[in-house]
Design brief:
The protein has 196 residues and is of the alpha/beta class. The protein has a domain at 3-106 and 138-154 and 176-189: Formyl transferase, N-terminal domain (Rossmann fold, 3-Layer(aba) Sandwich), CATH 3.40.50. The chain has six helices and seven strands; from the N terminus they run βαβαβαβαβαββα. The chain has a seven-stranded mixed β-sheet with strand order 3-2-1-4-5-6-7, sandwiched between helices. Helix 1 links the parallel strand 1 and strand 2. Helix 5 (121-130) crosses helix 6. The protein is globular and about 50 Å long. The chain binds 5-O-phosphono-beta-D-ribofuranosylamine (GRF). 5-O-phosphono-beta-D-ribofuranosylamine binds at residues 9, 11-15, 85-86, 106-108, 174, 177.
Length: 196
């Protein structure tokens, strides 16, 4: 399938950048056609803009119906798959309904462990370190109305060293994220991972 990807991001957008870079390097059937952020000053928007990608700022502070606006933009660009890349807002029900089984998220742990409300960023890595786990990792999953509970599409383990702290673990995991998101999108485009 030809993927026309819409991305939702709130902050740095390093995952977005990794996907952009890999699309340029490989001959794949994936195009990022629009990037939306709730944060007008986000580095994710700057990165996308400098790559010539259509960017939009959609926030509940400036728009009455965020879901309707997201759908409008993605429809305009014929988006057929959405990737959340560090998007810190809840996805409106209207978007979940319209893009059912077509929204991916990346989570910096091995779901179903260390997921759910409040489990984001350093909270995840701190919980993993405090539990003295041997492994953490990265999960790519479908998004539904419950935080981090959609079907798991791909996972990669990351071993935890004895001297790892939450922040060194976060660094290791981010490097794996940058590879796994693109790899999963590629498998979807090749129909080696089916979305339903
Ligand atoms: C990543 O750790 C991802 O797992 C989580 O948010 C972070 C986004 O980082 N969902 P970035 O904005 O892509 O740099």
């Amino acid at each position: 399938m030809k993927i026309r990807l819409g991305v939702l991001a709130s902050h740095g957008g390093s995952n977005l950048q990794a996907i952009i870079d890999q699309i340029k390097k490989e001959n794949v059937n994936i195009e990022i056609v629009a990037v939306i952020s709730n944060n007008s000053g986000s580095f994710a928007l700057k990165r996308a803009k400098s790559e010539g990608i259509n960017v939009y700022h959609i926030s509940s502070k400036t728009t009455f119906d965020v879901g309707e606006q997201i759908i409008k933009v993605f429809r305009q660009h014929q988006v057929n798959l959405i990737a959340l890349a560090g998007y810190m807002k809840k996805i409106p029900d209207s978007v979940l309904k319209k893009y059912s089984n077509r929204i991916l998220n990346i989570h910096p742990a091995l779901l179903p462990k260390y997921g759910g409300e409040g489990m984001y960023g350093m909270n995840v890595h701190e919980a993993v370190i405090n539990a003295k786990e041997e492994y953490s990792g990265v999960t790519i999953h479908l998004v539904n109305s419950k935080y981090d509970e959609g079907r798991i599409l791909n996972q990669q383990k990351v071993p935890i060293a004895k001297d790892d702290s939450a922040s060194t673990l976060a660094e290791k995991i981010l490097l794996v994220e940058h590879k796994l998101y693109f790899a999963t999108l590629k498998l979807i485009s090749e129909e080696k991972i089916m979305l339903q």
